[in-house]
């Protein structure tokens, strides 16, 4: 089956009409090229999106107080309430498998009024009162100095960590902010660190740097927040889903604030884990579409090979008749046609893989010289498993393409074949 004569015959059969062979092979080449490029593009998009989540505790949710939508225990519908610092301890005590429960308060907002001054310079910035754990729940790189620690919390130190855009807005070029003071709503805070944060979408990259972090306790004291908590960032332990645990968290809040157990509007939340799971599901769907479209395009090329093999068998009817008359078995005829089909399919398919690899290498080479930290597309590539799957598809496709022509070849009777002109 794999003798030198068989391979010589295959090469001679395919090279007898080079133009027809190349056109036929192009269908398979293009199909496998599209398949690899689509899978690599999907992988690049996935890498880019997940880069936006890098450093972030994705098994988290953010929770805030809203308006009660149902009357309960003599309390009216529509009443407002606030989280308290005691809620944090209650959640930690009553809900298992939670890693972090971080209370947070906030001043300012997007395009808010100027609330921070330093000398003659002023700016409008988001100011957060936080615990040290928040840096493990949201991505942030400390570019100088340090972040909040528990000594700051316990001693209610008036210290602040500022974003790079805050530094640009309040300080002169080259000026060192560490150890200097800024005034937040009239209260002095000493700068102990600077940070740079990655945005999750690219559009708010600048706004993500316009934030100031201070200890939660000193924030509450300086701005008369008392025991009030604006909102919380809650992260579950590895192996536990915050999506499954959040109802227990809500139950604790409802019990402590006399909210109807079925009032689902009283506690607002953003489930990051749920959104992250949806994104993962989206990429599974994209991979399915890539395989589906790529295989359909490949199938059209396979049909082209099958048609050409039918023509080849028709052209070689007399030759097949002579071989049958000389004692060739049906299997030897069938195997010869199948080998020609598989050979042509694999050669054209491998050319498609090499071409796709070259295109991807060029794209990655160009992207290596670019700043991809805020891009939604990163390192488009396919792993060896995809290449192996492509090879299996090629072999199976080659068999299918040659099956019908091979069956037609062995159905030819030697006498009828010899009479064919």
From TrEMBL:
| MF (Gene Ontology) | transmembrane transporter activity
Q: Which locations, inside or outside the cell, does it occupy?
A: Cell membrane
Q: What is the superkingdom listed in this entry's lineage?
A: Bacteria
Q: Does the keyword Membrane apply?
A: yes
Which Pfam family is an annotated match for this chain, by its short name?
FtsX
Q: Which residues form the ABC3 transporter permease C-terminal domain?
A: 292-414
Instruction: Give the matching InterPro entries.
Output: ABC3_permease_C, MacB_PCD, Macrolide_Exporter_MacB
| Swiss-Prot/TrEMBL keywords | Cell membrane, Membrane, Transmembrane, Transmembrane helix
Q: How does it sit in the membrane?
A: Multi-pass membrane protein
Q: Give all residue intervals belonging to the MacB-like periplasmic core domain.
A: 21-249
Q: What's the family?
A: Belongs to the ABC-4 integral membrane protein family.
Q: Know the name of this protein?
A: ABC transporter permease
| Source organism | Marixanthomonas ophiurae
């Amino acid at each position: 089956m794999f003798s030198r004569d068989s391979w010589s015959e295959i090469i001679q059969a395919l090279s007898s009409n080079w133009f027809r062979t190349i056109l036929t092979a192009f269908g398979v080449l293009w199909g496998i090229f599209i398949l690899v490029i689509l899978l690599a593009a999907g992988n690049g998009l996935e890498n880019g999106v997940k880069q936006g989540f890098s450093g972030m505790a994705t098994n988290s949710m953010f929770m805030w107080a809203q308006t009660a939508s149902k009357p309960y225990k003599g309390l009216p519908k529509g009443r407002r309430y606030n989280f308290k610092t005691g809620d944090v301890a209650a959640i930690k005590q009553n809900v298992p498998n939670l890693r972090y429960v971080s209370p947070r308060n906030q001043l300012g907002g997007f395009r808010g009024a100027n609330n921070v001054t330093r000398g003659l310079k002023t700016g409008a910035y988001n100011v957060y009162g936080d615990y040290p754990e928040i840096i493990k729940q949201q991505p942030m790189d400390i570019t100088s100095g340090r972040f909040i620690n528990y000594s700051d919390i316990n001693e209610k130190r008036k210290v602040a960590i500022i974003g790079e855009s805050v530094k640009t807005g309040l300080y002169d070029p080259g000026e060192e902010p560490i150890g200097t003071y800024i005034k937040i709503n009239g209260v002095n805070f000493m700068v102990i660190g600077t940070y740079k944060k990655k945005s999750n979408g690219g559009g708010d990259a600048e706004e993500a740097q316009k934030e100031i972090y201070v200890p939660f306790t000193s924030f509450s004291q300086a701005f008369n927040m008392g025991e009030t908590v604006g909102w919380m960032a809650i992260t579950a332990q590895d192996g536990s889903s915050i999506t499954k645990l959040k109802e227990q968290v809500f139950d604790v809040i409802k019990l402590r604030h006399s909210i109807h157990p079925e009032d689902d509007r009283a506690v607002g939340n953003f489930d990051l884990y749920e959104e992250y799971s949806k994104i993962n599901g989206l990429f599974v769907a994209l991979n399915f579409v890539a395989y589906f479209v790529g295989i359909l395009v490949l199938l059209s090329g396979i049909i082209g090979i099958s048609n050409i093999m039918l023509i080849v068998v028709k052209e070689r009817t007399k030759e097949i008749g002579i071989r049958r008359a000389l004692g060739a078995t049906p299997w030897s005829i069938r195997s010869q046609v199948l080998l020609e089909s598989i050979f042509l399919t694999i050669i054209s398919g491998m050319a498609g893989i090499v071409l796709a690899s070259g295109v991807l290498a060029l794209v990655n080479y160009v992207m290596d010289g670019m700043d991809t930290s805020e891009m939604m597309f990163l390192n488009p590539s396919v792993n060896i498993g995809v290449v192996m799957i492509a090879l299996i598809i090629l072999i199976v496709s080659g068999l299918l393409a040659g099956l019908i022509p091979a069956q037609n070849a062995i159905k030819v009777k030697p006498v009828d074949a010899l009479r064919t002109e």
